[in-house]
Amino acid sequence: MLDHIDHIGIAVTDMEAAVALYTALGLRVTHDETVPSQGTRAVFLSAPQGADIELLGALGDDTPVGKFLAKRGAGMHHICYAVPDLAAAITYCQHQGYEMIDTTPRIGAKGKLLAFIHPKAMGGVLIELYEMKRGERRAN
Ligand code: ZN
Fold this sequence. Notes:
Blueprint: E1 4-11, H1 15-24, E2 28-35, E3 40-46, E4 52-58, H2 64-72, E5 75-83, H3 86-95, E6 106-107, E7 113-117, E8 126-131
Parallel strand pairs: 1-4, 5-8
Antiparallel strand pairs: 1-5, 2-3, 3-4, 6-7, 7-8
The structure holds zinc ion (ZN).
């Protein structure tokens, strides 16, 4: 069902400092978007190969990332897997008994369709599923 890890989400309290840390290691910023519907600013960085990093800043204390930062502090927030068919993946997860945060796809950063599996269902790790576009790179 899962194709490949697309990105790893990291919650940050100081976006500019976090971007500086990763760009100094050679990653480059490929996307920077404020997503008011999710109360976040998402900055994606790419390495020459492999999964991207998504830095997540909170637009306020009362947003999902703001609450995460208050409770757990800065650090790893989620792992995002690409799937070929998101609606089918959600249905599959539900039939397997995974608790879903999203039971229907929603639109996130970059206009991508996504859904989250609840961390309670995954040993404390928030899992994002996003739908690959037709013809998008697949894992070997
Ligand atoms: Zn993400």
